[in-house]
């Protein structure tokens, strides 16, 4: 059963993950999103309790 032999696949998997984390990820993280939203001030609203008819 060749799929139980981790010799070639383990090396390929580790190499691909190392390539992604060390080379590709820092390059991808330098991009900025074009649709950044401006900082909005939070408005506090006064809430009133619900007038329950049975109380």
From TrEMBL:
GO terms for biological process: proton motive force-driven ATP synthesis. It is a single-pass membrane protein. It holds the Pfam family ATP-synt_8. Its main location: mitochondrion. The chain crosses the membrane at residues 6-24. Residues 35-49 have a biased composition (Low complexity). The keyword Transmembrane applies. GO terms for cellular component: mitochondrial membrane; proton-transporting ATP synthase complex. It comes from the Eukaryota. InterPro entries: ATP8_metazoa, ATPase_protein_8. It is found in: Mitochondrion membrane. Keywords: ATP synthesis, CF(0), Hydrogen ion transport, Ion transport, Membrane, Mitochondrion, Transmembrane, Transmembrane helix, Transport. GO terms for molecular function: proton transmembrane transporter activity. Residues 35-55 are annotated as: Disordered. Belongs to the ATPase protein 8 family. This is ATP synthase complex subunit 8. It comes from Bucco capensis. The gene is ATP8.
